[in-house]
Amino acid sequence: MGKSILKRTICTMLLMSTMVGMQSLIAQDKIISKKGDETLCTITRITDTHIEYLDPQDEFYKIEKKYIKEVEFSENPRNPTDHSNNTSKVTKFNLLSLLNNSLQFSYEKALDPISSIEITFKVFGVSIQDFPEEKKGGGIDLGYRFRLGDFINGDRKIENSHVLDGIGIKPTVGACYAQIDIENAQEKYYYVHIGTVINYQVVFKNRILFEGYGGIHIYKGKNKIDFSNTPTRTGVLDFEDGDLNGSDNIAFSLGIKMGYVFGGFDRDARLLRW
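Predicted structure:
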């Protein structure tokens, strides 16, 4: 009886080992070199220059992309682009806008690992320094951001970076209205603008985000200037509104933002893009 139990135990252990080995084999990714060699492994990271992976014995290796013909992923791989644990929303505050008589705050939400939408609200007349004029008004901007790295390096680029990290390009549209009172004159103006912003974002500890950006825009609008002792007239619409400064229908934006990152992706809809 003891020998029978021992045999069954050994057979069970061998069967379990075989199943684990087969499961490991089935779930492996495959790297195919330009020489035709095939390597079964678990890919952990793909960068601009190389691929990092673990062999079936969990030994770590790295191979340069120039030696690789193609990569095949298993049906159920350990997916390095699974961003389900990433926070995907951020509220941001523009640190530089307060130097230009404007309070600006934004909300950005990642749609998937390579794109996000952002809305920015502007309140004029809020500053950390004194200005000779009294300014009222505000504006709103809408942007759609693409992470540039994923386009530059191809659709199958994989990065273990945060979904909000990296260099991005953001087409933007917006509208503003302002009233400025100074001495014996009052100016009222409004405009709409469209442009492109390039930014760089870094996320720390999945919670804190820093962003630097710059952009160019074209705008169209009208203004009206009322003087106490002269007739009302329309002037040239030049403006300095927070992060956006415009003259002759061309405007430039520049800013630094800091934000708090929160929220996450639905695990049943990971929104992965290859």
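Summary: The longest helix spans residues 2-26.
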